[in-house]
Design the sequence.
């Protein structure tokens, strides 16, 4: 009877040790995954901040250029001598502003795509590292 009790206790202890090992490995894996998630979030946040800063600076530059075009147009309108000249100036102004807006839209689209791709690469890399 004592021998059977000893076997049961040994089996129970072995089972408990195995459960502890599995639980510890699970905790370590979940901790590593969470740390990877935090790192990925920080990198993504940094990329977004960088992207936002670039957009802000470029927006200010483009606004200054648009304003400069407007003042230039106004200055030239003041000196216009004939209605035909006024129409020509207006056409030139609208053309410059349209080109500026088109370039701005294209540039911002490219910035957004680059930022999204960088964020995706960082997240994929972090997931890969967490899985290893």
Sequence:
């Amino acid at each position: 009877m004592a021998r059977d009790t000893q076997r049961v206790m040994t089996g129970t202890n072995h089972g408990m040790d195995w459960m502890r090992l599995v639980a510890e490995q699970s905790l370590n894996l979940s901790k590593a995954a969470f740390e990877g998630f935090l790192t990925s979030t920080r990198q993504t946040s940094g990329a977004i901040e960088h992207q936002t800063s670039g957009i802000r600076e470029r927006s200010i530059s483009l606004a200054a250029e648009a304003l400069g075009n407007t003042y230039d147009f106004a200055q030239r309108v003041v000196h216009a001598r004939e209605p035909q000249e006024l129409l020509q100036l207006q056409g030139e102004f609208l053309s410059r502003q349209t080109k500026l807006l088109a370039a701005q839209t294209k540039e911002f689209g490219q910035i957004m795509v680059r930022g999204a791709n960088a964020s995706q690469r960082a997240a994929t890399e972090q997931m890969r590292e967490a899985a290893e």
The chain has one domain: 2-131. The CA atoms of residues 29 and 132 lie 10 Å apart. Residues 2-78 form the longest helix (77 residues).
